[in-house]
Amino acid sequence: MLAADSGWTILLTGDNLTRLLGGLWTSVSVAGLALIFGIPLGVVLGALRIMHNPVLRAVLRLYLEFFRIIPTLVILFLFYYILPREMGVQVDGETIAVVAFGLWVAAEISDVVRGALISVPEHQVDAGKALGMNGLQLLWYVRLPQSVNLMVPATINLAARVIMTTSLLLLISVIDVVTVGQQIMEANRMAHPDSAFWVYGFVFLLYFIVCWPLAMIARALEKRAKERNNG
């Protein structure tokens, strides 16, 4: 019982709780900025992928496969350690993370958008052509409105994945919630050997509180979209 009490007191000692919540805010803000940057770019790339241009489609496909095949950790290291040195610029870790995650989000969203756009029935597209719509008008007035219901659940799921992947920020010197948790654990390791259980357990709880509602919302939207498609 004493060990349990001492474990909880680690979280409540000094400003540890405030630091953990501040680290969570860093994780969520990096993920949020990456989504704000990546989603619009992904929508544009996804729209370009349905164009009848084999060279453009091949380039965008390679872009997608690069971010799918290369581990996110390797991408972060590439952006944080190699590119700034080769370009002769100094960029902070949070900016690097936003750019790296944003490009990853754009790649994933481009595939979501492409799949949703090509799922629109061809007779709807043909009807738009019969009305004299050009390619951009078909995209804006026909394809996008009918495919949004398919895009939103996948986008919310991706947002949860990005938030969870921010746990890698520890490795590029960004003070996120995992980094703060490690600092607290190491500072109390001698006095409280069970500190890892309580600190990382609380970090897990914070991630769960943020990501679980997103998963539930995505599931509800997917169910609604299926019901709507089935009539």
TrEMBL record:
Residues 24-218 form the ABC transmembrane type-1 domain. CDD domains: TM_PBP2. It is a multi-pass membrane protein. PROSITE patterns: ABC_TM1. The keyword Transport applies. It is found in: Cell membrane. The keyword Glycoprotein does not apply. The chain crosses the membrane at residues 24-50, 62-83, 95-113, 158-185, 197-218. It comes from the Bacteria. Gene3D superfamilies: MetI-like. Pfam families: BPD_transp_1. Belongs to the binding-protein-dependent transport system permease family. PANTHER family: ABC TRANSPORTER MEMBRANE-SPANNING PERMEASE-GLUTAMINE TRANSPORT, MEMBRANE COMPONENT OF AMINO ACID ABC TRANSPORTER. This is ABC transporter permease subunit.
